[in-house]
Amino acid sequence: MLQQTQVDTVIPYYYNFISKFPSVEHLAKSSQEEVLKVWEGLGYYSRARNLHRAANIIVKDHDTILPSIQEELLKIPGFGPYTTNALLSLAFDLPYGVVDGNVKRVLSRLYAIQDDIGESTTQKKIQDLMNGLLPSKHPGEFNEAMMELGATICISRIPRCSVCPVYAECIARKNNIQGALPLKPKKSKIPTKHALACIFFHENLFLIAKRPQHKMLAGLWEFPVIGIKKGENNSKIDISTIRYRYNLETSLKQSWPAINHSYTHFHLRLYPKLYEAGSLNFQSDFYVKFQWLGIEEIRSLPLHKAIWKVLGLLEEELETVPKRNIVNT
Questions:
Q1: Which of 8, 59, 87, 93 is the most exposed place for a label (fewest CB within 10 A)?
Q2: CB–CB of 76/58 below 8 Å?
């Protein structure tokens, strides 16, 4: 949970998660959908899917006991070098160096490494340096200390060199270049993608569809989304487009301004539109699983954040126009 997410955000999710899944057996027996629902709102959902897959492997292949061999851990979903080394050193007291962003910053300055921190060769160099620094006793404590040093003293913008315990050994500090390190790759401009969120209703039911396992946000539910090509206007997607894509006869009832939502690699402008469907005969090559449900039933499903925003607009509409043939069932 702490990968890419701040501690304050994680804490309530963590306690809720372990109350729902108090053991690896409980987690393995649960459905992916149950896990995603508990994870809902934390983002980076591949972490939740990997955790669920890992629990099944640990129960099935390792008799519920987490292996303490690096090669075995690296075979488990979600266990990359960082997670694996952290676990081996902290849980099993084995000599594996942990390299996170904080450690990269500390060692880049300590040894005045002036290579791009994003390059694999630089990362290997830092990992080798960390491995060489590990003491024979309590390597986990050393790893924690290095991460804490980067988090509290050797911080990004203005490092607190005057209180640093390795002040005298820091080559970057001696050369007064600590503020310029580590060298990071230039950030590319984050693109903006446009899409239409189609809220289909028939009588008292709304269509909600599950995203495929091989796509982003896999396993989460959403109102069907249609991507808008660059240079096109959202009005280009009309009822004939919907008929062709979903084999569904519809009429447009309501449009809202775009909802803005940001992901790691792109910004999303999502245009919600409400359509009345002439039947329940929805067909899709993309959405293998879908349901026609009432609002409360939709709320019980794992939804991604952009769709929660859309759902909020829909609920406001239902409250302000109670006589319309769209009711909360």
A1: 8
A2: yes
